[in-house]
Amino acid sequence: MENKTAKPRFCVLGAGHGGLAMSAHLGIMGFEVNLYNRTSDRLRLIQARGGIDLLGEIEGFGHIKIATSDIAQAIKDVDILMVVVPALAHRFIAEVCAPHLKDGQIIVLNPGRTFGAIEFKQVLEAKKCRADVMIAEAQTLIYASRMINPGQVKIFRIKNSIPVASIQVHHIPEVLKVINQAFPQFVPGDNVFKTSLDNIGSIFHPAICILNSGWIENEHEFQFYLQGATPSVAKVLEQMDAERVAVAAALGIQATTAKQWLYLAYDATGKNLHDAIQANSGYQGIMAPRTLNTRYVSEDVPMSLVPIASVGKMLGVETHTIRNIIQIASVIDGVDYWKKGRTVERLGINGMSVKDLRFLAIGAETNGLNKK
Description:
Elements: E1 10-13, H1 17-28, E2 33-36, H2 44-49, E3 51-56, E4 60-63, E5 66-68, H3 71-75, E6 80-83, H4 90-97, E7 106-109, H5 116-126, E8 134-138, E9 143-149, E10 152-158, E11 162-166, H6 172-179, E12 186-188, H7 192-197, H8 201-211, H9 213-217, H10 231-250, H11 258-266, H12 273-278, H13 295-298, H14 300-315, H15 320-333, H16 337-340, H17 344-347, H18 354-362
Parallel strand pairs: 1-2, 1-6, 2-5, 3-10, 6-7, 7-8, 11-12
Antiparallel strand pairs: 3-4, 8-11, 9-10
Helix pairs in contact: 4-5, 8-10, 8-14, 10-14, 14-15
């Protein structure tokens, strides 16, 4: 960055629920922030008004310096690129950013879902991007938020603690030194495998949708987490969670359980996962999607569940419940999510040893990194 004492300049990439919340919040905090979206439809009112109305836990009008669908204009002269798009769009964002990135810029995926930072790095390399950038991912999105109207977003809750890790672990303190000027909630993660395998959305989102498909398709209005995660549904979530934790353990990583995460992120506790979900006031008012055509399925199945199950298969860890949810989602949507998702083959890590995977997790070069 040009001036080490100046406030960092941000570009938020994505004008969905999370991107609007982050842009407005940064603007209210006094940071210079650009907002990029692939299409200009969601930007017109923001461009006309010069900012975004923020409601809920933080309230005010967040000034936006530039709102644009021109990627070169959006990321020029910024210090931090906060990527806040569905994981299905990570590849696209990497492709369009590649020609315009500059040395020293920090890229943070909010969140990376499962192995997002690894995929982002692969795309930049494939595009022959020579810029010396730092690529990091957050374990989850910092906000529980929803867009209320064009140019207006509500933050239901800001999470307490969000681990962040970079592809090269020695860059984690440098990334946090900059990002903590705006978001003290971000804390050091161990490595990108840990942040990826602590992807709690992979457990909560797809299964609650699939197991409540009757309610959703009949347009029954209900609170997604508080009513959707019934005692029986929560038992399925707990089994999926145990499988996720087992895959992480096979890599030598102690994953955070979903129940532990609810306490760390929201101070919510309970004797089991169902009770901990019900104790989370941050979920109050978050309604279920009106259709199964939702990113909770179309994003979280291929970009979150598939990589967990694929790595599990490679390492000999059974993930029966996760695989069943993937299969049911594929049948419902008429999509083979195994072919669409982040499998070990598509990530270029098929056949790698646990040792080489752990080297990859900390950003060390090994002979296994080029294995296809």
